[in-house]
Amino acid sequence: MGDDKFSGVDFNTERHFNRIVLKYGERIYRTVRGMVGTHEDADDIVQETFLKAYKNIDSYRGEADIGTWLTRIALNLTYSRSRRKKLFSDNPVEDYMEKISSDTVLPEVAAEEKERRMIVENALKTLPEKQRAVFVLRLYEEMKFSEIGALMGTTESASRANFHQAMTKLKKFVSDKKLK
Amino acid sequence: MTNHSLYKTKLNDFVMEELPKNEQEEIKAHLNECSECSESINLLKETLMIFSAPNFDMPQKSYFASLAPRVRERAEQKEKKVSLSFLFDNRWVGAFASLLLIVSSAFLLYNLNSEESEIIVQDEPDYYYSSIQSENYTISGLSATFSSDDWELLSAVIDEEIGEYLEIYQYDSDDDQIENLSENEWHDFYENFSKENIL
């Protein structure tokens, strides 16, 4: 994390732009995909992230590394999208229990992994967006809480608290469902 | 707070190995004695095991290789759309344009139907300074554009042979002919425009 400052890189040259997209594309995709349910939504937000960065490179002041800046753009776009499309549920975890038990029966092939993924996706959907963002950044990107706090414009302790709240909810989710 | 209560609040950090080494060891020892904390840790580990791996496959390398060109293409498409979508996609701009159209139409109708309209700036005390506010105002076959309250920002194309003003347009500092008009000439222009040529 935070390995370069992206100073003096010109987005307007194709070579530099391609380099930035190649270097940070996977990271941005993984974060966004962890936040939204489908590849299509993630793809759209990832493209929009780089487009926005491309257009607003003048506002990038080099205070954070470029990856952090891009992730911040991506999260803001994700939040914005989620408010329009309701990607995140307002329902508490408990309300979701009945729904998940009535979901379509999975095919026999790779059933365990499919079930795990379905559970993860559906459980993560029940988290408020900030808790989910912290959870994704901590677990998928292995970011430190201090980095997450800086990225999200909060403090390290706030990020830590968000993560713990998320963990508590997910633990209860697992406990209630007796997931194995 | 007992040690148990204290440790209980730190189990999340313990399972994430976020605690200082000595605290990690303390809690580890506590787990051997406390079944409640031990169960809680097992559940936390299970939760982490389920949730720490992403619930999706990453796209193939080709997806990321094609990302930059697709973003560029998207940028170009957006640029093309901007001019057309400006009026249609932005509800506020659309509303403002509609409002402007209504006001302009009302103003036009009012002026066409009232006697005062025959002399566009008839009551203007400071001759070529007008309070007219309209856009693309057309009267008697002549087209005039008023984009400002100030007549000094307007200029005219004059057909010298027939002595008529063919078009009024915004003042252009590059237009020597208009720029060089003296105050008296502007006065004449105003008088002719409002009382003779237009009517």
| Gyration radius of chain B, in Å | 38 Å
**Main sheet attributes: strand count, strand direction, barrel closure of chain B:** 4 strands, mixed
Low-pLDDT runs of 5+ residues of chain B are 115-181, 194-199
Helix content of chain A: 55-70%
Return the average pLDDT of chain A rounded to an integer. Answer: 78
Structural class of chain A: mainly alpha
Low-confidence runs of chain A: 1-7, 89-107
Query: What would the principal axes of the Cα set say about the shape of chain B?
Result: elongated
What is the CATH homology-level superfamily of the largest domain in chain A?
A: Winged helix-like DNA-binding domain superfamily/Winged helix DNA-binding domain
Q: What's the structural blueprint in terms of helices and strands?
A:
The complex is a heterodimer of chains A (180) and B (199).
Chain A: H1 14-35, H2 39-55, H3 66-85, H4 93-101, H5 111-125, H6 129-139, H7 145-152, H8 156-177
Helix pairs in contact in A: 1-2, 1-3, 2-3, 6-8, 7-8
Chain B: H1 3-9, H2 11-15, H3 21-33, H4 35-52, H5 61-65, H6 67-89, H7 91-113, E1 137-139, E2 142-144, E3 154-159, E4 164-170, H8 176-179, H9 183-197
Parallel strand pairs in B: 2-4
Antiparallel strand pairs in B: 1-2, 3-4
Helix pairs in contact in B: 3-4, 6-7
In short:
Chain A has 180 residues and is mainly alpha-helical. Helices cover 69% and strands 0% of the residues of chain A.
